[in-house]
Write a structure and sequence with these properties.
By secondary structure, the chain is of the alpha/beta class. 37% of the residues lie in helices and 11% in strands. The protein has a single domain, classed as Glycosidases (TIM Barrel). Helix 11 links the parallel strand 7 and strand 8. Helix 11 runs parallel beside helix 12. The N terminus and C terminus are likely disordered.
Length: 409
C-alpha cells in the first residue's frame, strides 16, 4: 500500500487552513487518518450536510480574464443567506494546462482564481464540490486526454490535500461518447487511487456513464473497500420540457411545452428517482442529484412547479442536490440585475424553511461583461439519451426516506 502523502493547502493568510478546519467541525485531526468505520459513516454525514446546493462560477469569463469576473464575494454570502448549504464549481482546466510540459502544469492564475472561490465559499460556510467539467473533451478522445486528466487530479490532490473535509472532489462530470461506461469504470478506478494517495479521507463524488444517467447506475463499478464515495446522478426529464428552446440541443424552435404537475407527470419523475433510490439501498451508497433544471425558454410557472417537485422528491429519499445553475443559463440569480429569480429560488428553497429573513439584494457594481458574453458550454446536452431510468415502471413511495435507516442500520 502506498504511503499516505500530505501537503498544505495554499490559501491567503486571512483564510488560514487552521481556521477553516475549525469551522468545518468534523475534520480529522491533522496527521490522524480516519479509521475505516469512521470513514464509511462520514459519507452519509457529508451528504446530509451538503443538503441543498447550486452550481456556480463554471462558465464565468473570470477564469481566463480576471478583470471580467462576474461572480463576486457578495454572491457567496447571498447564496448562503438564501438557504443553500453548498456550491458545486464546474472546472474546465484543460485550456489552462501547459501542453509543452510533460506534467501538464496548471496556470498559476487559474489556480489563484480557484483559491479565491474556495476561500469565498468557506468564508460563507458553504461546502464545496470541485467538479472536473471536461466532459466534452474526454468524450471525444478519452485515451488521448487521459494523461492530462490524471495530471489535473494529481495536482489538485496535492494542492488541496490539507483543505477541510467540507471540500469534495468530483472526478468527472457526465462521462459520455467514446468514454463508454465500461471504459469509465477503468478510468475512475485509476483516478481514485491517485487521489487517495494524498486524500485518504476525502469524500469523492463519482457518477455513472452516459451523462450520469440514472439508467446507467447498474453499470457503475466502484471499489467495495472504498465507502467514502458519494454517487451522483443528473436529471433533466422530460427533456422536451427542460431543454425546449435550447439551440445546442437542436430545440431552438421547439417551445411551448408545459409541466402542469399532473398525476402522470409526477409519477414519471417518481419512477425515475425511485430507480436510483433502489440502487442506493442495494449498494449502501448515498446519492447526490448533482444537476437538474429547466431552461429559461419554458414558462416560469412550469419551471417552478417542475423544479420544486424534483427537489422535494429528491429530499424525500434523503438525497442532497445541486441546482443547475446560478448564472449563465437555467439561472436562479440574475447577476446583471442584481436579484434572485424569485420563483425558481422559492421553488428550490421554500421561504418557510429559510433560517434568515430574505433581503432584496442591491445590484452590486462589478467589472462584469453583459450576460451575452458568458460562455455557454452546456451545448453537448442535446446528444444525451432521454431515458433517465430505463424501463422502471413500478411505483414505491413507501421506500422514501428510508435510505438512512437502511444503509446505516
Amino acid at each position: 500500500m502506498c504511503k499516505v502523502k500530505r501537503a498544505r493547502w495554499a490559501m491567503p493568510a486571512a483564510l488560514a487552513l487552521s481556521a477553516l478546519v475549525a469551522a468545518s467541525g468534523e475534520s480529522a485531526k491533522a496527521g490522524q487518518p480516519l479509521k475505516s468505520q469512521e470513514r464509511d459513516m462520514r459519507v452519509f454525514a457529508h451528504n446530509k450536510r451538503l443538503g441543498r446546493g447550486v452550481n456556480i462560477f463554471g462558465y464565468d469569463p473570470g477564469w481566463s480574464a480576471p478583470d471580467k469576473r462576474r461572480m463576486q464575494g457578495e454572491h457567496f454570502r447571498l447564496i448562503k443567506e438564501a438557504g443553500f448549504s453548498h456550491v458545486r464549481i464546474p472546472l474546465s482546466p484543460f485550456e489552462h494546462m501547459a501542453e509543452a510540459d510533460r506534467d501538464y502544469r496548471i496556470e498559476a492564475s487559474w489556480l489563484s482564481m480557484l483559491d479565491w472561490a474556495l476561500g469565498q465559499a468557506q468564508a460563507s460556510h458553504l461546502m464545496v464540490i470541485l467538479d472536473c467539467h471536461e466532459y466534452e473533451s474526454m468524450a471525444r478522445d478519452p485515451e488521448g486526454l487521459k494523461p492530462k486528466w490524471l495530471s489535473f487530479w494529481r495536482q489538485m490532490a496535492r494542492r488541496y490535500a490539507g483543505a477541510p473535509d467540507t471540500v469534495l472532489f468530483e472526478l468527472l462530470n457526465e462521462p459520455n461518447g467514446a468514454l463508454t461506461p465500461e471504459l469509465w469504470n477503468r478510468f475512475l478506478a485509476e483516478a481514485l487511487a491517485l487521489v487517495r494517495e494524498w486524500n485518504p479521507d476525502r469524500t469523492i463524488v463519482i457518477g455513472p456513464g452516459q451523462w450520469n444517467q440514472i439508467g446507467k447506475l447498474d453499470e457503475l463499478v466502484l471499489p467495495e473497500d472504498d465507502r467514502n464515495i458519494l454517487v451522483t446522478v443528473h436529471y433533466y426529464e422530460p427533456f422536451t420540457f427542460t431543454h425546449q428552446g435550447a439551440s445546442w440541443a437542436g430545440r431552438e424552435n421547439d417551445v411551448g411545452h408545459e409541466w402542469q404537475g399532473t398525476e402522470s407527470e409526477r409519477q414519471a419523475i417518481e419512477r425515475d428517482l425511485l430507480t436510483a433510490q433502489r440502487w442506493a439501498m442495494q449498494h449502501k451508497r448515498p446519492i447526490l442529484l448533482g444537476e437538474f433544471g429547466a431552461y429559461d425558454r419554458a414558462d416560469m410557472a412550469s419551471r417552478a412547479r417542475w423544479t420544486s417537485f424534483v427537489a422535494r422528491t429528491a429530499e424525500s429519499h434523503g438525497w442532497s442536490w445541486a441546482y443547475w445553475q446560478f448564472d449563465s443559463d437555467f439561472i436562479v440569480y440574475d447577476i446583471d440585475a442584481g436579484k434572485w429569480v424569485e420563483p425558481i429560488r422559492d421553488a428550490l428553497i421554500p421561504p418557510a424553511v429559510t433560517s434568515r429573513p430574505r433581503r432584496r439584494p442591491q445590484a452590486t457594481p462589478t467589472p462584469a461583461a453583459p450576460s451575452a458574453g458568458v460562455t455557454d458550454r452546456s451545448s453537448s446536452r442535446g446528444s444525451r439519451q432521454t431515458s433517465a431510468a430505463g424501463s422502471e415502471t413500478e411505483r414505491g413511495p413507501a421506500l422514501r426516506g428510508k435510505l438512512g435507516a437502511a444503509l446505516m442500520g
